[in-house]
Amino acid sequence: MAYVFLVLAIASEILGTSMLKTTEGFTRLWPSLACLGAYGVAFALLSQAVKTIPVGVAYALWSGLGTAAIVVIGVTFLGESISAIKIIGVSLIVVGVVILNLGGAH
After folding, report:
1. Three-state SS string across the chain, please?
2. Other beta carbons within 10 Å of 73
3. Is 46:6 a contact under the CB 8 Å cutoff?
4. Which pLDDT does position 106 carry in this prediction?
5. Contact 89, 37 (CB under 8 A)
6. Predicted pLDDT of residue 60
7. What is the pTM of this model?
8. Which domain, by its residues, includes 45?
């Protein structure tokens, strides 16, 4: 069940981060409230996940997979540029998360 909480926390964090641009620096009320609400849900779910999953592993998954997803969302939906350097950087994040999980499983 802890990994279900973690996946939902990651999804909520991705939603909140995706909405940041629409807040226009937190000057627009409803997008700002939705963004902050998504982050609140993400942290609540993450706090449930770390009851079972080691906090370092949970946070690495949460932040690493969230970062990779946001790069894809930015390029796909927000018109952000992608370069070989960005791809390498995100790949290193994902590899680091995998290594951490392999080491944490023993």
Report:
1. CHHHHHHHHHHHHHHHHHHHHHHCCCCCHHHHHHHHHHHHHHHHHHHHHCCCCCHHHHHHHHHHHHHHHHHHHHHHHCCCCCCHHHHHHHHHHHHHHHHHHHHHCC
2. 15
3. yes
4. 44
5. no
6. 87
7. 0.87
8. 2-104
Cα-Cα end-to-end distance for the chain: 20
Rounded CA gap, 23 and 26, in Å? Answer: 5
pLDDT at 78: 87
How many residues in total does the chain contain?
106
Q: What is d(CA 104, CA 97) in angstroms, rounded to the nearest whole number?
A: 10
Residue 102 is encoded by which pair of tokens? 């392999």
Rounded Cα distance between 93 and 60, Å, is 9
Assigned token pair, 76? 């796909």
Rounded Cα distance between 23 and 25, Å, is: 5
Structure tokens at 105: 């499983």
What is the total count of domains within the chain? 1
∠ CA 50-54-60, nearest 5°, is: 90
